[in-house]
Design brief:
The structure is a single chain. By secondary structure, the chain is α/β, with parallel strands linked by helices. It is 32% helix and 25% strand. It is built from ten helices and 14 strands. It has helices spanning 15-20, 58-73, 91-95, 110-123, 179-189, 238-262, 278-282, 284-288, 306-320, 330-339, and strands at 4-10, 27-29, 34-39, 42-47, 50-52, 79-84, 129-141, 144-147, 157-160, 166-169, 174-176, 198-209, 215-224, 292-299. The strands form three sheets. Strands 1, 5, 6, 7, 8, 11, 12, 13 and 14 form a nine-stranded mixed sheet that branches. Strand 3 and strand 4 (42-47) form a beta hairpin. Helix 2 packs across helix 4 (110-123) and helix 6 packs parallel to helix 9. It is globular. It binds adenosine-5'-diphosphate and magnesium ion (MG). The site of magnesium ion has 4 residues, from helix 3. Belongs to the TRAFAC class myosin-kinesin ATPase superfamily. Kinesin family. KIN-1 subfamily. Residues 3-322 form the Kinesin motor domain. It comes from Salix brachista. ATP binds at residues 85-92.
């Protein structure tokens, strides 16, 4: 069984898309787990653990995919939430909201809700445990890890300790004592994040038993990935091309790791390629260990973005590793071959989706 929950989220059409697209949107809902995706004359059906349509609220997304992770974190269990999709698909909106100090309660994203949720859970927890919440924030740009809480640390090394835990060597960790404090710290560095880098937020909950002094930790990691879009071969040059290649490589590495992990024991290779990118290395504990992982595939509903949306949905489908589902039509397969798929190299032995 896969330990990955895969969800899809469609944002509302942007005003530009509303003007551009003659026919309105390229999906039609079947239920809260499945929808039909239409592209030109072709149609195929996708199924996920949950589909959030354009009218879905930030609170719905939080409750379904983050609240269980928050509840586990205060018990010392790790969890990771990853947002995937092309630039403009709603990744940052899902993670942060429109601004981290969002006054509009409804628009608050996952990150501020997770912070609130952690402190809520701690408030109602037993008194035999002393809780400490810490926050770190890094970005991965051109395969370099930069500390977003101290920009002078621009080449953080990833190390493994004796317990085989992944560590960001020397990264700034601030202890936060209430949600407001966390949000203040986050907001000061929030503008630094770019759609060409992966942004990683790490909330660590330390649980110290007041009786025997034993310490456990639970981590919640939120990842706002760089845009997954393909860069036009003709247009991209120099820095933009280099950025695109690096992003492509790390997203492929993520796909390969997810693929290796979600294959059944018979097909699973003993080697999981965590070391192929900084992104997968940082997520090694989260993905490989006994933790909950949620992949939120963010999509535009516009026909003008249909090919990128298809690529995102296919990434999600592979992560879920749905066994030959009658819902996934074979026409979708032809599409993928025609348009290529930047996100995963194929491992026939465990590719049972198609
Ligand atoms: P990404 O981070 O994937 O590049 P953004 O999160 O910045 O994309 O979203 C692009 C635009 O769409 C932003 O203006 C954002 O506020 C808006 N948007 C994204 N998702 C939603 C949503 N579910 N509801 C309303 N607006 C959204
Ligand atoms: Mg973004």
């Amino acid at each position: 069984m896969s330990n990955i929950t895969v969800c899809a989220r469609f944002r509302p059409l942007s005003s530009k898309e509303k003007k551009d697209s003659r026919d309105n949107i390229c999906i039609s809902s079947l239920n809260s787990e499945s929808f039909v995706f239409k592209e030109e004359k072709e149609e195929c059906t996708f199924s996920f653990d949950k589909v959030f349509y354009e009218e879905s609220m930030q609170a719905d997304v939080y409750e379904f995919l983050a609240l269980p992770i928050v509840k586990d974190a205060v018990k010392g269990v790790n969890g990771t939430i990853i947002t995937y999709g092309q630039t403009g698909a709603g990744k940052t909106y899902s993670v942060e909201g429109t601004s981290i100090l969002e006054c509009d309660e409804q628009k608050k994203g996952l990150l501020p809700r997770v912070v609130d949720g952690l402190f809520e859970c701690i408030k109602s927890a037993d008194e035999l445990t002393k809780y400490t919440v810490k926050l770190s924030m890094v970005e991965i740009y051109m395969e370099k890890v930069r500390d977003l809480l101290d920009l002078t640390k621009d080449n953080i090394q990833i190390k493994e300790n004796k317990m085989q835990e992944i560590l960001l060597s020397g990264v700034t960790e601030i202890t936060i004592s209430n949600p407001e404090g966390a949000l203040q710290s986050l907001s000061t560095e929030m503008n630094v994040g770019s759609s060409r880098s992966h942004c990683v937020y790490i909330l660590t909950v330390q649980l110290e038993s007041t009786t025997d002094k034993r310490v456990k930790t639970g981590k919640v990691i939120l990842v706002d990935l760089a845009g997954s879009e393909k860069v036009e071969k003709s247009g991209a040059e120099g820095k933009v091309l280099e950025e695109a290649k690096t992003i492509n490589k790390s997203l492929s590495a993520l796909g390969n790791v997810i693929n290796a992990l979600t294959c059944g024991p018979s097909a699973r290779s003993s080697h999981i390629p965590f070391r192929d990118s900084k992104l997968t290395r940082i997520l090694q504990d989260a993905l490989g260990g006994n933790s909950r992982t949620v992949l939120l595939c963010c999509c535009s509903p516009s026909p003008s973005n249909a090919l990128e949306t298809l690529s995102t949905l296919r990434f999600g489908t592979r992560a879920k590793h749905i066994k030959a589902s009658p819902l996934v039509s074979c026409r979708e397969d032809r599409h993928a071959k025609k348009h290529g798929d930047i996100t995963l190299t194929k491992d026939e032995s465990c590719d049972r989706i198609l």
